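#struct-help
A.M.: can someone run this one for me? Single chain, 124 residues.
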Amino acid sequence: QVQLVESGGGLVQAGASLRLSCAASGPTFSVYHVAWFRQAPGKEREFVGSVSRVGVTYYTDVLKGRFTISREYGRNTVSLQMKNLKPEDTAVYYCAARKGQFGDYRSLSDYNYWGQGTQVTVSS
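D.P.: on it. Structure tokens below:
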């Protein structure tokens, strides 16, 4: 079982960059597929992107190019680098993990483990 802790959220102005981190407990985090989701006020939680065990990344089309996911195997961490932030990026950002075969997992139900979330607020 893995425990996930997000960090790095905060209040920024539009156009700024921000880097979120998802730190995991346990020595086997490298075998997990890890995703980032976000949930804006009054909206459903939505897929942002994910990274496979071997570093292959997937993104929702609307965010591709502004958001980049990477994993640091030695630190048991997966990062979400966000640039050119917009007010509509305001949300609670969650990381999630699952074991399993290589694939493109985009649904909430695909993931077994979740962090508590970190708030990102982008002011105009």
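A.M.: thanks! DSSP finds no helices and eleven strands in the chain.
D.P.: also worth noting: The CA atoms of residues 87 and 123 lie 6 Å apart.
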